[in-house]
Amino acid sequence: MTTDPSFSIPAHPQRRFPHGNGVEYEGGTEFRLIPEQERATPALAETVANMLEAGPYRFGDFHDLPMPLWLVRDEETTDVFRVAVRDGTVRLHVLPTTESAGLQRFFERLCETCTEGSWTVQRHVDGQ
Description:
This protein is an alpha+beta fold and 128 residues long. The chain has a single domain (28-126), classed as 2-Layer Sandwich (Double Stranded RNA Binding Domain), CATH 3.30.160. Helices cover 22% and strands 34% of the residues.
C-alpha cells in the first residue's frame, strides 16, 4: 500500500447552471488511484461497486454512460465526490464542497479491499 499519499485539494471546481442545461463544473481536481497490478476495468468497477455496497456510503450510479460512474457520499465524513473507473484506474473527482478526509478514507478502504499489490495516487488539477 502506498504510504500516506496526499489528498490535499488545491482547486475546487466552480459550479455553473447554464440556462436549461442542468449543472456544469469548471476547473477542479481529480485523484487517480492506480493499482500496481494491472486490473481490467470491469473487475475494478465490480470491486468499487462492492466496496460502496459495504458502506459507509450512500451512492447512485449513472446508467447511460460509457464508463462506471457514481455520485458518492461518505456517511462518516459527510464528503461528497464522484467516483469513476476508467482505463484500469479509479478516479475520484472533487466537487465544490469535497474535503480531503472522505477521499483519504475511500483510498484506505480500497487498499483494505484490494490487498494484492500497492496503489499509486496521482493528482491532476485543471489548468496545471
